[in-house]
Amino acid sequence: MSDEVSPEQIKKEIQSRRTFAIISHPDAGKTTLTEKLLLYGNAIHMAGSVRARRNQKNTTSDWMKMERERGISITSTVMQFPYGDHIINLLDTPGHQDFSEDTYRTLMAADAAVMVLDAAKGVEPQTVKLFEVCKQRGIPVFTFINKMDRPALDAIGLLDQVENVLGMQAVPMNWPIGDGDSFMGVFDRKTENVYLYDRTSHNQSISPETITTIDDPRIEDRLTSYQFDDLHTNIGLLDELAQYDYDALMAGQQTAVYFGSALTNFGVQLFLDDFVQLAPVPDAYESNQGEIEPAEAPFSGFVFKIQANMNPKHRDSVAYMRICSGRFTRNMQVNHSRSGRMLKLSRPYAFFADAREVVDEAWAGDIIGLPGNKLYTIGDTLSVQNDLRFNTIPRFAPEHFARLINIDISKQKNFTKGVTQLETEGAMQVFYEADAFRRDPILAVVGVLQYEVVIARIEDEYGVKTRLDRLPHQLARWIDGPEEEVEALPWRYGMLRTKDADGRLVALFSSAHELSYYSEKYPNINFRDTV
Ligand code: G4P
Question: Number of structural domains, the chain?
Answer without folding.
Answer: 3
